[in-house]
Amino acid sequence: MDVNLRVAVRLTGEAIMSDKPMDLHHAEMLARQKAYTLWPELVGVAPTVAPRQRFLPPNGHSPAPGAARAQPGEGEEFVFTFRGQIRTPEGHLLPRIAHVVINTQRGVVKEIVSK
């Protein structure tokens, strides 16, 4: 699956805007760099990817309060999910699930992790 991302990734891991399209592989590289930087315990975990559904209300209707409004031409979004485990000081395994949302035009939109 190819995605026209307008983001290029430097070796340092920072995103820069570019006119050159980027495929899904490069979007995954960007998501991995962000996740591995924020949550080092997930280094080496391969993510799953899913398209993010965005609600665009019919003309004349407003979205629910606080809901993100999708604008036409704003680009697609994909959610990269990283599932790993960390060991607590008591020796128990704690699931660690992180999501990185990538927009096809703006790059990384948000990052979130389970506690």
How would you sum up this structure in a few lines?
The protein is mostly beta strands and 115 residues long.
Characteristic terms for this protein:
4-stranded antiparallel beta sheet; 115 residues
Structure, explained:
The chain is mainly beta and 115 residues long. 13% of the residues lie in helices and 40% in strands. It is built from one helix and six strands, in the order ββαββββ. It has one helix at 24-38; strands at 5-9, 15-22, 48-51, 77-87, 93-103, 107-113. The strands form two sheets. The protein has a four-stranded antiparallel sheet with strand order 3-4-5-6, covered by helices on one side. A two-stranded antiparallel ribbon has the order 1-2. It is globular. The two termini are 32 Å apart.
Tell me the structural class.
mainly beta
The total of beta strands comes to 6
The N- and C-terminal alpha carbons lie at a distance of: 32 Å
Order of helices and strands: EEHEEEE
Radius of gyration, whole Å = 16 Å
SS element count, helices: 1
Order of strands, widest sheet? 3-4-5-6
**Shape, principal axes of CA atoms:** globular
Which ranges are low-confidence, i.e. pLDDT below 50, for 5 or more consecutive residues? 1-16
Oligomer description: single chain
Give the % helix: 10-25%
Largest sheet entry: 4 strands, antiparallel
Average pLDDT over all residues = 76
Q: Strand percentage, roughly?
A: 35-45%
